[in-house]
Write a structure and sequence with these properties.
Elements: E1 5-9, H1 13-24, E2 28-32, E3 48-49, H2 56-71, E4 83-84, E5 88-92, H3 95-110, E6 117-120, H4 121-127, E7 137-141, E8 145-147, H5 149-162, E9 166-168, E10 175-179, E11 182-188, E12 191-194, E13 197-200, H6 206-212, E14 221-231, H7 238-242, E15 246-248, E16 254-259, E17 262-266, H8 298-309, E18 318-329, E19 336-339, E20 346-350, H9 356-373, E21 379-382, E22 385-388
Helix pairs in contact: 1-5, 1-9, 2-9
Bound molecules: flavin-adenine dinucleotide.
């Protein structure tokens, strides 16, 4: 293909879906992963997917992602759907919070998310009888939900191969050759890999990989995040649990069914950036965050905090597992999507905070549009609608902080 060879670095959801999109646009593609497909955050995620955001461009982008994921099974060999559309329910504690929520719903509806609605206290209780009667209301979007992330990256990897892409696992990028500022090849222990275009999809590793490539430093902090699993026992019925939406309490604590017997829950906590983490560190659980640490530890308090919003949870049998991984957090919680200022043939698609699994299809569309243009763009057309890319630009000044972060 002459000058259309792209090297994707990182085989998580971002790298795999970007590779697929580039192949469909006529690029030759090789994907390199230091470990294996899904070795990073993509296999450690709560995988919530929502269109309820506070940035209009992100709402538009997320509409595209939900649509993409509902159709993804049509092109994969397994035919398994990666999305469970149980909805997202943002609970609101008081009238002031409800007023702000109504304003967000109006913006979201104006940019095309017609099915989102604000529920007052009575409507909330009528539709979701298991919520506390202390709440002022909620916002509700029935087409939101959560993903089965392994379906995205495993079936996505098979799709990349079937489209003619090459996938090299256990191939860490350790350096690069550069001519006139442009990367010509990246180095791996198995040899050099040449290309016309390179795409950094290493998310929490981006600072280290960027330095190896001579790229610009980006403000991306790897922050530890935990998930806990609560056994239902005899509380609530299995079908009621498995049909519940992803529910966010006013405190920011969230939960969603993992299956009919288990609730997954999480909440962000204050922590320092772990810049030199190893692959094993991803799964390391600090003692205070373990489900084994008793009633003074974080998971027990979180369980009780969520039970204030969903009283039936108090009767669940107990927290029986902890998993962990890294968010790659940016100052405004929006990712960096664009060409690197120091390496003009390097696209960075990193810094997804808690949103990289859901944003995957949008990210891949932006990567493909940038790759085809060969330069940064002000906007990208998604289903005929312009989405402004300034929100995601590498040199932005963080004027708009995404307000809906969990
Ligand atoms: C606890 C938790 C909950 C989350 N909840 C949600 C949620 O509800 N919804 C949501 O959308 N997102 C959520 N996220 C975030 C989401 O999981 C990530 O944003 C997303 O998985 C990032 O995907 P990625 O492909 O960009 O990165 P990753 O999946 O981390 O992939 C990066 C890849 O780069 C590879 N790599 C690293 N260094 C090199 C190198 N030198 N050479 C080659 N390859 C390299 C790694 O091996 C890895 O496979 C959550 C994350 C966590 C940890």
């Amino acid at each position: 293909m002459g000058d259309r060879r792209a090297v994707v670095i990182g085989a998580g959801i971002t790298g795999i879906l970007s590779a697929r999109e580039l192949l469909l646009s006529g690029w030759d593609v090789v994907v390199l992963d230091a470990a294996h497909v899904g070795a990073g955050s993509s296999s450690r995620t709560a995988a919530g997917i929502r269109q309820q955001f506070s940035t209009p461009g992100t709402v538009r982008g997320m509409r595209y992602c939900v649509d993409f994921y509902t159709r993804f099974a049509e092109e994969t060999e397994s035919g398994e759907s990666p999305i469970v559309q149980n909805g997202y329910l943002f609970l609101q504690a008081d009238d002031a919070a409800m007023e702000a929520a109504r304003a967000r719903v109006a913006m979201q509806q104006a940019v095309g998310l017609k099915e989102v609605e604000a529920l007052d206290a009575d409507a909330l209780r009528a539709q979701f009888p298991w919520v506390s009667d202390e709440l002022a209301g909620a916002t509700w979007c029935p087409t939101d939900g959560f993903l089965r992330p392994h379906v995205v990256y495993s079936d996505g990897a098979a799709r990349v191969r079937s489209l003619g892409g090459e996938l090299r696992q256990r191939s860490p990028v350790t350096g690069a050759r550069v001519e006139g500022g442009r990367i010509t090849t990246v180095t791996t222990p198995l040899g050099e890999v040449g290309g016309d275009l390179f795409i950094d999809c290493t998310n929490a590793w981006t600072a280290r990989v960027g330095a190896l490539l001579g790229a610009s430093p980006l403000e991306v902090a790897p922050l530890k995040r935990y998930l806990w699993f609560v056994a239902r026992g005899d509380a609530m019925s299995g079908p009621t649990l498995s049909s519940m939406p992803l529910t966010i309490a006013p405190s920011g604590a969230y939960c969603r069914p993992e299956n009919g017997d288990t609730m997954l829950m999480g909440k962000k906590h204050k922590t320092a950036a772990d810049r030199d983490f190893t692959y094993d560190d991803q799964d390391f659980v600090q003692p205070d965050f373990s489900h084994r640490a008793g009633i003074d530890a974080a998971p027990f308090s979180l369980w009780m905090e969520l039970a204030e919003a969903i009283p039936d949870l108090a009767d669940f049998a107990g927290v029986n597992a902890t998993t962990a991984g890294y968010y790659a957090t940016t100052p405004d919680h929006n990712p960096f999507l664009g060409f690197d200022a120091r390496r003009p043939n390097l696209i960075r698609a990193v810094g997804f905070s808690g949103h990289g699994a859901m944003l995957g299809p949008f990210t891949a569309r932006v990567v493909q549009a940038l790759a085809d243009a060969g330069t940064n763009l002000d906007e990208v057309l998604i289903d005929g609608e312009p989405v402004e890319l300034g929100t995601f630009a590498l040199g932005r000044t963080y004027d708009h902080r995404e307000a809906m972060v969990i």
